[in-house]
Amino acid sequence: MKKIFSFLLLLSAGSAYAQTHLEQYINSALSSNETIRQQQFLLDKSLWALKEAKSLFLPNVAFNGTYTLAGRGRTVDIPVGDLMNPVYKSLNQLTGTNNFPQIQNQSVLLNPNNFYDVKLHATYPIINAELVYNKKIRSQQYDMQKVEIDIYKRELVKEIKIAYYNYLQATAAIRIYENVLALVKENERINTSLFNNQKVNRTAVVRSNNEVTKITAQLNTSMLHQDNARSYFNFLINQPLTSPLLIDSIEGVPDPHIVNDTAINKREELVKLHTASAINKNLIGLANSYKIPKLNSFLDVGSQAFDFKVNDKSPYYFFGVSLGFDIFSGGKNRYKVKQAKADGKVIESQISNTEQQLKLQVSIAANSFNAALVNYNAAVSQVASSEKSYKDQLRMYKEGIALYIELLDAQNQLVSAQLQENISLYDTLIKQAEIERANASFIIQ
Which residues form the signal peptide (predicted)? Predict the structure, then answer.
């Protein structure tokens, strides 16, 4: 018995969390939409840019090799003959020998001839404020791209919901017209029978025929609206335009309390602007980084010699550090800072304006939902009274105490009331989707 109870508990839990067809369509669209895929590619690009910024903090090692041949050109004259020949002459006289020959002055080329130099050249930034700010900016740009994707997803969800409800609305209208068509065909049959029995004149038959034609045309129009709604919905979810849609059962209007959530702090548009403001602050820091000296180190390890010789004297290393900062740049750096600060003021103004726009959007969406709810309740009441009126007119017409024109009037009122109820019902759902978009209450997976 315990196992049976556990099984039923799991079954009920699974059904409680079962997704509706609309939720499944939304999840499918978010994973297959081409625009989202394009945005994802841009996100990947931002991620690689961030990794590139991080890599600038690591040592850079490169291999360099040169070989030079030189002839003529500038030389350095070394007067070794003028310096040493007098000394050598004196030594020869003192020794009575010619052991110290006379030598010529030397002229050495400045450019090395038949000379090679191969080395590993490594550089490492010790202090570089530009790299620090660049990394911060790249990271924030990556976050902004993620927000950009969420903005598009939220807008897509709203459009999908509205398109789906428009399809359901058209489908429900078709059912209404099909029911009405059955009624007017029955009226046509009754009027034809009464005319054959000389109970009514030909006008009643002609009017009933016209009603059949009119309702048939309206039914065909609703079918075209349904086809268009289905095609647009399938376009949004990246399916073939003619794919059939699974229909959820609509049990009633949304919870009226959804209008109580008027917060706008969850809107991605504000998050994006605040991220842009943070980026601007780092851009100001980047522009001011000229005040901080740059300290870099380098190391060369290699071999160099003439005639491709490699011996114990050819290997070498060369290490050093470099320090540099701007002393005078004609005000260029200060102007960059002022430009960045001006951009910051623009972003602050955009944040303030966007907040007001979003608050207005939430307010309008809430008021529209309340109005749609009032219209729906009025339409429900109108359908109830119209159904009663039509039944009474149909009964009296069959008894011969009411004119056909009165029956047609009651019938048209019933059709209009049913269509208005259908429109009002799905209008409340559409307004719910707009509220979810306005206050960002829909949870995006």
Answer: 1-18
Tally of CB atoms within 10 A around 319: 10
pLDDT at 276: 95
3-state helix/strand/coil string of 378-391: HHHHHHHHHHHHHH
Burial (CB < 10 A; 0-12, 13-18, 19+), residue 226, is: buried
245-258: string of b/e by CB count within 10 Å (b at 16+)? beeeeeeebbeeeb
3-class DSSP state of 420: helix
Residues 6+ apart with CB under 8 A from 413: 386, 389, 390
Q: What per-residue confidence (pLDDT) applies to 151? A: 93
CA–CA separation, 297 and 125 (whole Å) = 6
Find all residues with CB under 8 Å of 17, minimum gap 6, and list them: none
Which strand (E) or helix (H) includes residue 119? strand 115-127
Cα separation, 212 vs 186, in Å, equals 10
Structure tokens at 149: 């994707």
pLDDT reported for residue 85: 84
Q: Cα(27)–Cα(77) distance, rounded to whole angstroms?
A: 84
Tokens of 151: 């903005």
Distance CA 113, CA 72 (A): 10
For domain 20-68+120-439, the CATH class is mainly alpha
Q: Measured between alpha carbons, how far is 387 from 410 in angstroms, rounded to an integer?
A: 8
Is residue 346 scored above 80 in pLDDT? yes
Q: Are 177 and 185 in contact (CB under 8 A)?
A: no
C-alpha–C-alpha distance, residues 267 and 94, integer Å: 104
Q: Could you tell me the two tokens for 252?
A: 């009633």
For 47-60, give one letter per residue: b (16+ CB within 10 A) or e: eebbeebeeeeeee
What is d(CA 114, CA 308) in angstroms, rounded to the nearest whole number?
Answer: 8
| CB-CB contact of 437 with 158 (8 Å) | yes
Q: Which of 116, 115, 128, 117 is nearest to 60 (CA)?
A: 128
Q: What is the pLDDT of residues 201-244, one digit of tens each?
A: 777 788 878 888 988 999 999 999 999 999 999 999 989 999 99
Mean pLDDT of 319-342: 91
